[in-house]
Amino acid sequence: MTVPEQSRDDRLARARAAESARTRRAGDEVLTRSTGRAARSIGEVDSQARHAWAQLGNVDVDTDARLTLAAAIHASRAATMARHRRSATGER
To answer: Is the dihedral of CA 29, 31, 36, 37 positive or negative?
Structure first.
């Protein structure tokens, strides 16, 4: 390989590495923004759950109702996290 060919190959390799780094940084930024949105959404779910749980605490209900509410809270959090994960990875 001649010097000009090696120089060109080196430039191409550096350009590919730089593009890869830019793509990785852009992906990290999208994931960070999505993670922040997910945390806020989950925080809202948790806030609503605490309010519902407090309201339930003021009422004389059986254990089944409390377990049903706990399951609904868990399902809501899981759905929120899954939605944000799909959004971050570009899934539909």
So the answer is: positive
